[in-house]
Amino acid sequence: MRVLAVLLADIESGKYGPGDPIPSEADLCKTHGVARETARRAVRVLRERGIVETEWGKGSRVRSATQGADTLGDGSSDQQHRSQ
Q1: In this structure, what are the phi and psi dihedrals at residue 81, rounded to the nearest 5 degrees?
Q2: H/E run at residue 62
């Protein structure tokens, strides 16, 4: 999924750091020319991996590496090691 790959690269490069908002689903659709469900799926994968957190009405923000590893036992610690 191209949108997911771009978001991951942007987070890993530091374009979006801990606490920073990522683009909205609508912005992702416009920027990448994808359907809303594709953008939604990319954000959901990031959330499931513990990389971002979503707050209804406020959007999604990058979590800190330790925040994701401490709260999820789903391999998100791999993300922590990659980001160090």
Answers
A1: -65, -35
A2: strand 59-62
User: First-to-last CA distance in the chain?
Assistant: 25
Among 43, 67, 45, CA closest to 56: 43
pLDDT tens, position by position, 4-24? 999 999 999 999 999 999 999
Alpha carbon distance 15, 17 (integer Å) = 6
Average pLDDT rounded to a whole number, residues 29-38? 96
Residue 7: the pLDDT is: 96
Dihedral angle sign, alpha carbons of residues 9, 31, 48, 50: positive
This prediction has a pTM of 0.73
